[in-house]
Amino acid sequence: MRRPLGIILPILLLIVWEIAAQSINNQFILPRLETVVPVLLAPTVDILGTGSLVHNALVSLERVGAGFLVALAIAIPLGVGMGWSQRFDAIVDTTIQLLRPIPPLAWGPLAIAWFSVGINSMVFIIFLGAFFPILLNTIDGVKSIKKTWVEVAQTLGASERQVLSKVVLPGASPTIWTGLRVGFGIAWMCVIAAEWLPGTTSGLGYLTLYAYNFGQMHYIIAGMITIGIIGIAFDFLFRSVEDRWFCWRGLER
Amino acid sequence: MKGMRLLLLGCLAVLLVAAACTTTQQVTGDVGILYTKGTGPMPTLLATKQIDGYIAWQPFVEVAPVAHIGKVITYSGELPPAGRWQNHPCCVLAARTDLMGSNPALVDAMGAATILATRYVNDHPSEGAEIVADWLAGKGNFTYGNVTVSSVEVLDRAFPTVKFVNEPSEAWMNGQVEFIYALRELKALTGSLSNTTDTQSKALLFDTGPYTRAMAMIGAGKITAPPAERDPVGVGYLLSDHDASLFVAVKKWQYFNDTYGIALKPHDMTATRPDVVDLLVNGVKVAELKLIPADAGPQLMQLAATNTIQFAYVGNPPTIAAIDKGTPVKILMALNDEGSGVVVVTDSPATDWDSFVRWAKERSAAGKPIKMAAPGKGSIQDVMLRYALEESGLSVKEVQA
Asked: Is A35 near chain B, with CB under 8 Å?
């Protein structure tokens, strides 16, 4: 019953949108549905020489994938270290807390200077977006492992390495997975912003900004909807994995 | 159901009104100037009456009339004082001095490719407009509500208002020096150009050697092949028809290759905006060029300062400001003169500059001064609009948010 109920508001919003668009009659404030829908229904047609929606979505996904993987590869080991060793945590934590509140896009000018224009600086910005949620969740996941589990393993003669790989990592994995889900969501938002950096020539973020130059609001909205749909799709994917593999989290008490 | 709809519509209306009230900005002079960091937001701001007009480079001047949101009252060459801005310098080709030192023949070759493409644009304006429409919009259509216009038509309208020239003449250099004075007034020059004589300024700004040598090579009918560059060379440009020579050089590479033995051959022949091209001299690749677009000149100069790009097709004030701050670049030649325009909202009583000034004075007297958008503080458009307004007896203040 939840899904049918949930669908009512979006439909209502579409109706309100169309009525508002017709009464405002200014496509710069709100373009009509009938100018946006054809763009979404033709996702393989070129837009302003920038490529199709599908092409640009794939480009953006590739970038977010790269940045996300780098973040994952660094944040998980670091998070396990920080969660496991209080001493290591004490050394690193202050630095992490200092860097964490800086919005990824604020790094834009430096990213361009350090990694030059193109994919590398975008990956850097996406990495920053995904890094902290993954790291914090990993730390949290490791810290919240039950002492009894570790003690049982140690009593049975497990080495520290075995404890980490057989008890800590699996035990923390549901929380880490939540971190990945949140991290990917933020990375996806960051790729859109990262594509506003100079020198970009493709991607959904670039497409929306480029359409802005010519006042093509229907392309902007079509781009926004595509960004939203892809975001939801990935969130759904992460959630279904969570439900399937990590449902035990709620069971043990 | 109907009540619900009305309620939601009402909420939306309240939100919009609230937003309009809270974002009202303070204008303290006769005319307020709002900087929009490029041309992007201008059509939207105009269509939503947040500004009364704007000054922009082409083709964004023509976007207003074709979208029925504004009208062009004057093009930049006719701005007052009379004759002052006729043939005013606009975009230039600039290069980093380290590349000019390490591979001067490469810089000469880029100069030759640019000059030849400029000639082609002047000889084939409608083809030039079509190529620019392809580069900027894949020759696609722009849709504004019920109005749909082809990008080719927009560029056709814009092209005659841009003068494509390359010669770094004495008059052109003096025109550039005018911008130094304007930027000093705006307190935008604080470095090496803050206190120079005109002769010293010119020595810091220009190196016309590449232009002279490129013209000699073209005259002799033979382009000298530079030593090959191992690393890719970055070429920054603006998404404007002012940089038409670059777009034409790439899109008509086969013609230039066959006719003159110099070409910018794209790696991806099907791309509307190629981002990697080979510089071919007499059929041999001498460098791989990475073409990097930006929204505005200051971004390009930041890329030049960090050595990400070695060439820039860019407006002159950002280049002057960058040289002032020690960025190692020189201006090699012109790309275009004029090519900007002033747009006002459709229901404005202004039809030309004089009626625009009357309108601005009326609005100022009524306590509701008009707001004009310019791409950036110290941009060519900003400088010209400020000069023209002040010349017409109107004070100008930046809009305070």
From this structure: yes
